[in-house]
Amino acid sequence: MATCPECDADIEVDDFDVDKGDQLSCPECGTNLEVTGLSPIELDIAPDDDDDDDDEEVEDDGLEDADDDATEDEEDEDLDE
Fold it and tell me: Are residues 54 and 35 both part of a single domain?
């Protein structure tokens, strides 16, 4: 038996069916948890990788827009000549 670090609910975890680094969800509060210890089973709140992906996409989009602006400026210069 393990305890959710978010809501302190008891979570039944099969000792033989989990490995360190596995992720599961708390049935009480829905928090994503990661197995951080095996003997005894210890759980911690799982890192949220989705937020990192969103940040990278925003940064990439900004760079693409800057490239598009530069290309448009170059085309305008070519037309002026």
Answer: no
pTM for the model: 0.58
Q: Are 33 and 45 in contact (CB under 8 A)?
A: yes
The parent domain of residue 6 ranges over: 2-45
* Per-10-residue mean pLDDT, the chain, length 81: 95 92 96 95 87 54 55 56 56
Q: How many domains does the chain have?
A: 2
Spacing of C-alpha 6 from chain mean position: 18
Q: Is there a single domain that holds both residue 59 and residue 36?
A: no
Given 3-state DSSP classes, what are the helix, strand and coil percentages for the chain, each rounded to the nearest 5? 40, 25, 35
